[in-house]
Amino acid sequence: MKEFRVVVPHRPGGLGELLEYLATKGVNIKSVASITEPGRALVALVPYDPELARRCFKEKRFDFEEAELLFVDLRDEPGQLAQVARTVAEAGANIESIYLLGKVGQGKSSRVQFGFRFDNLEKARAALRTSPEWASWVGGGGEG
Q1: Can you give the residue range of the structural domain that contains 12?
Q2: Which uninterrupted H or E stretch holds 8?
């Protein structure tokens, strides 16, 4: 799974133009977030088809970057994100972005899937994989 960060003008219609263009090219978006700064907006998105999204950004000459995401399924209860943040911090990795990707189940058995971008993906993956809490619920980050 990939995260793309795209810079668009911070003006009425700037975000809409990007999203409309991607839609006309058939890019389906799993998750998206946006923040603004004076004069520009940073749009971070997770497409279902990263290859198609990359081709579109290049074709339109958008200023963009991409990174691998690690996904983790967590119990849907308070404190789970805090535990992930603590675990990866203790391993020397920093969370750069988080995406809510989906939820499965209901009640006490429900799980929520998050996508994380880390400054050090390998340290984060190793820390989460060695934790009994998440060992079987970690994937992505360039793995087949």
Answers
A1: 2-68
A2: strand 2-9
